[in-house]
């Protein structure tokens, strides 16, 4: 993609109305547009990052046998009344509205109740089980505080998955598979080393649920980590968990974190509340066991922007960068234009995505844009490089550029 054809615009100014570092960087680099507090539009560069994150998540959910679908944002009041969660006294983050016929509806903050209701049409017998479904869905939550940029929004993208099982044992087995799949996701996103499976307050069926917490100074949570045992506990349940898990509190390390995912074992609570049953091999009606699994897609993007950035801008991991290479053309001489155009085609033909800065900006502005946008690799084509018969290359994480051959560049970009 040429920058002359890409809808984007960098901004070097600090934004007075945005306090979150992740949003500051993403807005200045042309990835997002702030509509209002807690609501952001994702511009072409930002959308490419989200799509890359989604694809990693999609591959790992598919790998554990889940099927992708997409449900509605509009949700029926009567479904949520069955579990009492329509009440503002129980759930205080609803956005509610009325249709023209005066029917009261909600804008989905979660999809647990709606998907259980939907399963009444599809699950009847033990032969229909197990079932696992997931979606990427825009959620709407009327949050009181939204000062963390895209890490906490009133409108955000979430991957939510729901599994339905005949027995508690079958659900527990799948629950453990989901845990492992989530950690594979975070490792592929480049934050696995700083992400911990964390004991948190429980669902309906188990004493504890599990959160996935990533060490992050801008996070809103505090957890205690036992690195030797690879155990982490949310501060909210610390005393209870220490007793239950037999941990020496003196061996725990206190860290600030951002929650990037969570999973719950609901047992049969929602089955029983909403009247979803199946018939077993003995023709007996039984309750289903249900698990719920969430990953905040836009939140993960915000956490990565917070953690993987420096004084010059964003520093995207290879797996989710909107493009892998930033190609800078210095000069508008015919020979330079041809050499840069040829390099652009060579890199694309090698199967590597590239953003080609073919603008008439000054070299310093182009280098500044490259750092701010934060692609993993920067290369420069100029009269100087043509004369040397080489290409100027710099990794985003390096402080110095080097001159390398085209063959070495392509090998570097395509290896592994």
CATH class of the largest domain: Alpha Beta
- Main β-sheet description: 5 strands, mixed, barrel
Distance between the termini: 23 Å
Beta-strand portion reads 25-35%
Number of domains: 2
| Radius of gyration, CA atoms, in whole angstroms | 25 Å
Named CATH architecture of the largest domain = 2-Layer Sandwich
- CATH 4th-level superfamily of the largest domain: Bira Bifunctional Protein, Domain 2
* CATH fold annotation of the largest domain: BirA Bifunctional Protein, domain 2
Instruction: Give me the count of strands.
Output: 23
Unreliable runs:
none
Summed over residues and divided by their number, the pLDDT gives a mean of 94
Question: What can you tell me about this protein's structure?
Answer:
- This protein has helices spanning 21-28, 44-63, 77-81, 112-119, 168-188, 238-245, 269-274, 297-307, 334-349, 363-373, 383-388, 406-414, and strands at residues 32-36, 39-42, 67-68, 74-76, 95-98, 104-107, 131-140, 155-165, 195-201, 208-215, 221-226, 231-234, 253-267, 277-279, 285-287, 289-296, 309-310, 313-314, 325-330, 354-357, 377-382, 391-395, 402-404.
- The model has no long low-confidence stretch (mean pLDDT 94).
- The two termini are 23 Å apart.
- Helix content is 31%, strand content 30%.
- Helix 1 (21-28) crosses helix 8 (297-307), helix 2 (44-63) runs antiparallel to helix 5 (168-188) and helix 2 packs across helix 8 (297-307).
- It folds into 2 domains: 21-310, BirA Bifunctional Protein, domain 2 (2-Layer Sandwich); 325-414, Anticodon-binding domain (Rossmann fold), CATH 3.40.50.
- By secondary structure, the protein is of the alpha+beta class.
């Amino acid at each position: 993609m040429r920058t002359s054809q890409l809808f984007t615009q960098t901004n070097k100014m600090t934004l007075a109305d945005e306090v979150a570092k992740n949003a500051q960087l993403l807005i200045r680099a042309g990835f997002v547009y702030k509509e209002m507090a807690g609501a952001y539009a994702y511009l072409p560069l930002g959308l490419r990052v989200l799509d890359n994150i989604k694809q990693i998540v999609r591959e790992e959910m598919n790998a554990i046998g889940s099927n992708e679908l997409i449900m509605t944002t509009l949700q029926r009041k009567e479904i949520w009344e069955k579990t009492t969660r329509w009440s503002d006294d129980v759930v205080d983050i609803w956005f509610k509205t009325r249709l023209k016929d005066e029917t009261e509806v909600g804008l989905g903050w979660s999809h647990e109740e709606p998907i259980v209701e939907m399963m009444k049409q599809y699950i009847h017998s033990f032969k229909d089980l197990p079932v696992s479904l997931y979606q990427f869905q825009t959620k709407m939550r009327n949050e009181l505080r939204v000062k963390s940029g895209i890490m906490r929004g009133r409108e955000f993208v979430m991957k939510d998955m729901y599994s339905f099982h005949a027995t508690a044992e079958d659900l527990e087995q799948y629950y453990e598979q989901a845990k492992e799949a989530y950690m594979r996701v975070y490792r592929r996103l480049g934050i696995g080393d700083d992400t911990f499976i964390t004991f948190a307050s429980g669902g309906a069926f188990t004493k504890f649920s599990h959160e996935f917490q990533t060490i992050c100074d801008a996070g809103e949570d505090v957890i205690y980590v036992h690195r030797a045992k690879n155990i982490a506990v949310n501060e909210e349940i610390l005393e209870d968990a220490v007793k239950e898990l037999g941990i020496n509190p003196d061996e725990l390390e206190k860290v600030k974190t951002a929650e990037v995912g969570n999973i719950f074992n609901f047992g049969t609570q929602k089955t029983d509340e909403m009247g979803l049953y199946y018939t077993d091999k003995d023709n007996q009606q039984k309750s289903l066991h249900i698990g719920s699994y969430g990953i905040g897609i836009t939140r993960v993007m915000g956490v990565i922007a917070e953690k993987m950035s420096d004084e010059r801008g964003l520093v995207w991991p290879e797996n989710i960068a909107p493009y892998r290479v930033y190609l800078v053309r210095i000069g508008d001489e015919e020979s330079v234009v041809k050499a840069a155009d040829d390099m652009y085609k060579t890199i694309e033909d090698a199967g590597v995505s590239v953003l080609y800065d073919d603008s008439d900006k000054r070299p310093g502005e182009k280098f500044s844009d490259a750092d701010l946008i934060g692609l993993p690799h920067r290369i420069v084509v100029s009269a100087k490089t043509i004369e040397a018969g080489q290409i100027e290359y710099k990794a985003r994480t390096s402080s110095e550029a080097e001159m390398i051959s085209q063959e070495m560049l392509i090998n570097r970009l395509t290896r592994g």
